[in-house]
Design a protein that fits this description.
The protein is of the alpha/beta class. The chain has 2 domains: 176 residues, 3-Layer(aba) Sandwich (Rossmann fold), CATH 3.40.50.1950; 209 residues, Rossmann fold (3-Layer(aba) Sandwich), CATH 3.40.50. Helix content is 34%, strand content 23%. It contains 14 helices and 21 strands. It has an 8-stranded mixed beta sheet with strand order 12-11-8-13-16-17-19-20, sandwiched between helices. Strands 2-1-3-4-5 form a 5-stranded parallel beta sheet, with helices on both faces. The chain has a two-stranded antiparallel ribbon with strand order 6-7. The longest helix has 16 residues. The radius of gyration is 24 Å and the shape is elongated. It binds cytidine-5'-monophosphate. Cytidine-5'-monophosphate binds next to α12 and β16.
Length: 397
Amino acid sequence: MLAGKHVLLIIGGGIAAYKSLELIRLLQKAGASVTPVLTRAATEFVTPLSVSALAGAKVYQDLFNLTDEAEMGHIQLSRAADLLVVAPATADILAKMAQGRADDLASTVLLATDKRVLVAPAMNVRMWTHPATQRNLANLRGDGVLFVGPNDGEMACGEFGPGRMAEPAEIVAAIDAALGGGPLAGKHVLVTSGPTHEPIDPVRYIANRSSGAQGTAIAAALRDLGATVTFVTGPATVPPPLGVRVVQVETAAQMLAAVQAALPADAAVMAAAVADWRVANAAAQKMKKDASGRAPALEFAENPDILATLSKSPHRPRLVVGFAAETTDVVAHATAKRARKGCDWIVANDVSPATGIMGGSENAVTILSDTGAEVWPRMAKDAVARRLAARIAEALA
Ligand code: C5P
């Protein structure tokens, strides 16, 4: 898919810039040509000479370099490409893009382009989670900018968390998907994620400890393989992925309605931790303590089982994947659950507190399908997501 494609690669000034050299190599191996643009700060991390040698092309650096303007103006530079890629995309570049600033060659090219832009953010975890950066990301997402990563992990600054630039191979896959490739191009995949909140009264609710991390990672991995993703999420603590259609819900009933409204889909991954019960006698007004000192009695009603409903629906996606969070006899319970719910695969995991999986960044799962149980080693939730997404792509091929 990349053969004959032309990528304009903007390299930002971050420690991850060294990975851009590998990215250039991989793109060329895949048959793409690369025109590199370096920001001034990037030259502190990689030399124009090494970039130019690897790309086999001139490196563009300066907005006001007359030779460049004579050979190829910045407007043309930004339009001659099939895709603009920013890797690493620093907090500063993202802020400039979000504001539409054009004070150097990279930002000017990004503003002048009529092509899609894919960014691979890389920055310190605090910079990534800062409200200013998150605000910029939301704006960029609204502008249709595509994202790959960042990943969770150990960072050069010694901290741990989201902020590591995606690996070059992942960026190549995202470029492929952005250019209409990717094994899930043209496929619609529905993902549910996060907890549900079931109201007790207008200010109180019953919830669970799901962070939405695994569902979010799965949605992002499916997107990176080219899928169109509808992401139906309860009130999760991790932000939804970029580049997917997000439907925010609160209760199980709303989640079911959103799932049904999103059909048809080629596949569905139901990673939400849906509350089994809702409060049947939820109060319309805030409940008050009364003089007798009696505590209110809550009555529960069973929530609809979204996974089972979808599996039995006439509009059933070709592949339905459920989750089973268990604390004992994981495989036995998950096997029974797979039969009861009528889904194709169950991703089972042990969420006993000792595993640290619930709310943590790693997961250890067993995949149950009609071919049996397959135990995957413990790995980052992102890695589980990528492996699962690749499996889904195989199954839908
Ligand atoms: O029954 P249990 O909640 O353990 O089943 C887990 C699987 O079922 C998950 O895939 C979850 O998203 C789904 N589920 C659902 N609707 C419910 C309860 C669970 O879709 N009401």
